[in-house]
Amino acid sequence: MALKLRKDIKKSSYYVWFLGAKESKGLRGSEFVLPVIKHLEEREKDVEPFKVTLQVSHKGLKIIQNVVSQKGSKPKNETIKHFIPHNTITCVYQKEDVIACILLLFNPVTKCPLHVHAYRCDSLETASLLKQQLLVLIERPENQKKFAEIEGRLKAAKEVKKVESSVGSDTGTSTRESESSEER
């Protein structure tokens, strides 16, 4: 069987400011993204964000950062690249010129699989274009199916935790109450 090449998205590059990343409390939804955007925008007042290039293609999102390292006596330019597969971008949200997305990538340091990344674009139009391209990746049927399955498992796990935490909870009478009532 031949591989089906996906060309539903034209490769594009965006030069943006990376506001930062923070753990997400959920897989999809503005209720998980908005508090992180607010936090990162507040932090931006104290810590200058660095510039990165985002390359969006049918394969996913590539984050490219140019850094200067001091190895030896001469500064050396290095390029750091991170690839985020299309099936790990669960949602995208636009707040003015800021684009934020939730990524389903395990971080061994924090032991957290969900992160919100936020980027500031140079204009509302650029932010809108970036959002539209990311939506094409997110809305692929195979990705939507995968995200729905994960949400189902998360919901089931929460229900199990609720049941476990209620086991042994107050049933109305305790042993002591029963014993003391028998003594009377």
UniProtKB/TrEMBL annotation:
Residues 9-147 form the PID domain. SMART domains: PTB. Residues 159-184 are annotated as: Disordered. It comes from the Eukaryota. This is PID domain-containing protein.
